[in-house]
Write a structure and sequence with these properties.
This protein has 253 residues and is α/β, with parallel strands linked by helices. The chain contains nine helices and seven strands; from the N terminus they run αβαβαβαβαβαβαααβ. Strands 3-2-1-4-5-6-7 form a seven-stranded parallel beta sheet, sandwiched between helices. Helix 2 (23-34) crosses helix 9. This is Putative gluconate 5-dehydrogenase.
């Protein structure tokens, strides 16, 4: 018989979470540590990372870095691997949304968005895959979005990057799943994070978004725990190349 607890047990695994200083990335780091993993938390804000690692305890380590800088990818992977060894799991939660309207999109805003949201997840994963291949086991979780398939005002660059994440997830799965590495994405609905601050600052807009879901409410940080743990554990061993929408049924309507 299968032990249900063992399916979700991450003891002995090392996880890396980008964008861990706030929002869903921070929540992901806390949850993975609670599930038994040692967690390397990556972001640009040292103070926020220190606070997170103090909360988690000795099974957490902080790496301050700008993951969008491709020139530092090799050295970044070395720093990430130093505390506990090469990661078995990587969660790409770092992201940016400049919210520029179509007529106002700047080359700088476009490049910044694509570099962090789409380019970094690929090249950082590519650099970590050899160690996963050597173990015959790995989990890569990208962050998609409602805008992976829907167009929102002010979301030209962000939407393009998140639509790209959906296809990147499928392509990475095709390339690496034969080596025991599953690649999936989570597509969050509206969750209260720094990235969605402007949305939740408008009560009328937040209520409108909640009404668009099948469940009738916006997400809470706890709502990401189960889906993410599933995709990071043995429970999802035969699931790869998928985008799991965690949106309360927003995209079902």
């Amino acid at each position: 018989m299968v032990n249900p607890d063992a399916l979700f047990d991450l003891c002995g695994k090392v996880a890396c979470v980008t964008g861990a200083s706030s929002g869903l990335g921070r929540r992901a780091a806390l949850m993975l540590a609670e599930a038994g993993a040692k967690v390397v938390c990556v972001a640009r804000r040292a103070d926020a990372l220190d606070s997170l690692c103090n909360e988690i305890g000795v099974v957490a380590a902080a790496v301050v870095a700008d993951i969008a800088d491709r020139n530092t990818t090799e050295s970044l992977v070395s720093k990430i691997s130093a505390p506990f060894g090469a990661p078995d799991i990587i969660v790409h939660a770092a992201g940016i949304n400049t919210r520029e309207q179509a007529d106002d999109v700047t080359p700088q805003g476009w490049d910044q968005t694509l570099a962090l949201n789409l380019t970094a997840p690929f090249f950082l994963s590519q650099a970590m895959v050899p160690a996963m291949k050597a173990k015959g086991w790995g989990r890569i979780v990208n962050f998609a979005s409602l805008q992976s398939s829907r167009a929102f005002s002010g979301g030209i660059a962000y939407g393009a990057s998140k639509a790209g994440i959906a296809q990147l997830t499928r392509a990475m799965a095709e390339a690496w799943s034969k080596d025991g590495i599953t690649v999936n994405a989570i597509g969050p609905g509206f969750f209260p994070t720094e990235l969605t601050g402007p949305v939740f600052a408008d009560p009328e807009r937040a209520a409108h978004n909640a009404a668009q879901t099948c469940i009738g409410r916006n997400g809470t940080l706890e709502d990401i725990d189960g889906p993410l743990l599933f995709l990071c554990s043995d429970a999802s061993a035969y699931v790869t190349g998928q985008v799991l929408m965690v949106d309360g049924g927003y995209t079902a309507k």
